[in-house]
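User: Here's a protein and a ligand (S-adenosyl-L-homocysteine). What would the complex look like?
Assistant: Let me lay out the input and then the predicted complex.
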Amino acid sequence: MTVQPKKALGQHFLVDENVLGVIGRMSNLEASDVVLEVGPGLGVLTRYLADRVRVVHAIELDRSLEPSLLDALAGRTNVRLIWEDALRLDLRALKPSPTKLVANLPYNVATPLVVETLEHAHSLDRWCVMVQREVADRFFAVPRTKAYGAVSVLVQLAARKTGFHAVPPTVFRPRPRVESALVAFERAPVAAISDVRPVVEAAFAHRRKTAANALAHAGFVSRGRAQEALAAIGRAPNVRAEELNPAEFVQLAGALR
Ligand code: SAH
């Protein structure tokens, strides 16, 4: 069966099965796991997961892949296929509840999906995702670097990195133009990012502005209130968002309440 890959859906199918072993190790797969896979595509990873865990929930947007996918999964009764946009689906409604997110993610939804699942999919305690190298680097970037941004703060508050593996374009068909990486992380004990998320996103919304100006510009609080809150956490009124570490964002959100 031949399938014409769709660029807009980020379809870069895994063809090198050696990568599956790396994904398996980084995911720490156990027989009792319930895995959420977003974008099963032609089912290479889905099949690998289905043979090792209890249930795989596989959410795929492109229904034209159905014949190939069913073919790849022949005989496996523990895969639940859901034909939907993963960003619109209520992941909390999945039964049994997923414990791990393991996926070669469509690159255009990778960042929102990771943040959404960290914030709302409380049953998940481990992630192993294939993303663009640049996106992977952002997740655990440190303050005062170009890669550091809202997603770095939120990921680092909610999770702890457990693994990283660079992946060249040659393992995919068609080959992406960029490098990729597998990144694994587990949920940190304190994972309440909901209170902090609006502050973080507003503060980073305008990278050239000071944090206080960005917060005011986003309509979040007045500039004066923002500067007071920054003073309360021991920061200068003209500090920029990229200078604040994740713990300081928690304090700042507290001071703004
Ligand atoms: N896991 C497969 C395919 C990865 S390509 C493999 O490794 O070979 C990314 C897949 O995500 C494609 O099949 C694409 O159709 C699907 N996809 C893209 N956007 C999606 C969305 N919003 N929700 C669910 N699936 C999506």
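Summary: The CA atoms of residues 157 and 246 lie 6 Å apart.
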